[in-house]
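agent> fetching stored inputs for the zinc ion docking request
agent> found them:
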Amino acid sequence: MKSNRSTTENTNDGAGTAQARVACYTGPAPLKEVMFEQLDYLVAHNSGSCPNGCPECARLEHIKFWLLEPFRMVPASVR
Ligand SMILES: [Zn+2]
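agent> prediction call returned; pasting tokens
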């Protein structure tokens, strides 16, 4: 019986440990991806082609309100 699996496994040895280490840092990435995915989806409702009272447009307005809130506030230190 012949077995040449050991040669292919050897080539992956270093990359395997590196991948395991990278996996530890993938935690926050999904949140960012989900947020941008949701934003991308909702921003498409900004085109004005939606029927009146579109619930997704209402969500977009809601999110816009919260996202832009810090930019609406005038810092007290300015005056
Ligand atoms: Zn809409």
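agent> quick read of the result: Residues 45, 50, 54, 56-57 surround zinc ion (CB under 6 Å).
agent> awaiting further instructions
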